[in-house]
Design brief:
320 residues, alpha/beta, four-stranded antiparallel sheet, 35% helix
Length: 320
């Protein structure tokens, strides 16, 4: 991972203070505050309906907030939306290019939309085709591209005008894991060159790729920090990973065992949240042995982002 740019004496690339958006009595974004550095990959993580996309639409000038304030490169989202739109790239979670145009025709069209000068268009088109690996597919009809190639083309069109801030709303939804990895390599390259990347995702492995994360739930940010900081929060319970000869039966047994905070399936193993790993390990072995279940491995582990995600939301659910 490349180094993250710092604020220094410059203004933040993105800053939100008590930002809210309500639709009638429903508050989709509830007093959200955060700051994003230049050159940072900032991830918005959360379940569907958490408020991620609504927040992005406010920052892009597509929605006005109900209250609070936000700035992009010092420009106010309430009063300077036109100036903001010239400084951002936006890639929505739904493919938004034209299927009935060839790859390079889409690039030409969006170059015009973004106001790329005629002197620069050939150079910018060549850059996008090369960056996205689409040189050999430049005359292909866009509808005939596989999902991963469509995402690359959409990304290329979003950065035709060299925006310093890029918003990616669920950019890899519906594409295969290999295409997702390739797509993230492009994101890292852009961040390394100073582009600020603001990305929403519900893929937990993608959250690990971000420099910092904000976890949204029911319109609020309930956690903010680097992936490592979130995994090491003191308010999270210790985590044991248990591999057995029968995960289904072990799950049933451990869910009925006293002293365990939570038990969940994680791949072929079980993740068990506990207050005291030393005290609980023996209790787990005993409970499983009494049912004739072989314990192949039992050890304390650092939580994965999925564990953190579930634990923090469960904490929020328990709040009065």
């Amino acid at each position: 991972m490349g180094a993250v740019a710092t604020r220094g004496n410059d203004e933040w690339a993105v800053e939100a203070q008590d930002l809210s958006k309500c639709f009638g009595s429903f508050c989709a974004v509830d007093r959200v505050s955060f700051q994003v550095c230049r050159g940072e990959i900032f991830g918005f993580l959360g379940p569907n309906g958490a408020g991620k996309s609504t927040t992005i639409r406010i920052l892009c000038g597509l929605l006005l907030p109900s209250s609070g304030r936000a700035t992009l490169s010092g420009l106010d989202v309430m009063t300077q939306t036109e100036a903001i739109r010239k400084r951002i790239g936006y890639m929505s979670q739904r493919f938004s290019l034209y299927d009935d145009l060839q790859v390079e025709e889409n690039i030409d069209f969006f170059a015009g939309i973004y106001g790329v000068s005629r002197n620069e268009r050939a150079q910018r088109k060549a850059f996008v085709l090369e960056m996205a690996g689409l040189v050999e597919k430049r005359h292909t009809m866009t509808r005939d591209l596989a999902g991963g190639w469509k995402q690359r083309l959409a990304l290329g069109c979003a950065i035709l005008h060299r925006p310093p801030i890029l918003f990616l709303d669920e950019p890899t939804s519906g594409v295969d894991p290999m295409a997702r990895r390739d797509f993230w390599r492009l994101i890292y390259d852009m961040a390394a060159e100073g582009t600020t990347v603001f990305v929403t995702t519900h893929y937990m492995e993608e959250a690990e790729y971000c420099h910092r994360l904000a976890l949204m739930y029911r319109g609020k940010i309930i956690a903010l920090g680097t992936p490592t900081e979130l995994k090491r929060r003191r308010d999270l319970h210790a985590l044991l990973e248990v591999e057995t000869g029968d995960s289904s039966l072990a799950l049933e047994v451990l869910r009925g065992t006293e002293g365990l905070v939570a038990v969940a399936v994680f791949g072929r193993a079980l993740h068990v949240s506990v207050l005291d790993p030393t005290e609980t390990t023996g209790r787990i072995r005993t409970a499983l042995a009494q049912r004739g279940i072989e314990v192949r491995r039992l050890e304390t582990i650092e939580p994965a982002m999925e564990d953190v995600f579930v634990a923090l939301i469960e904490q929020e659910e328990r709040r009065p």
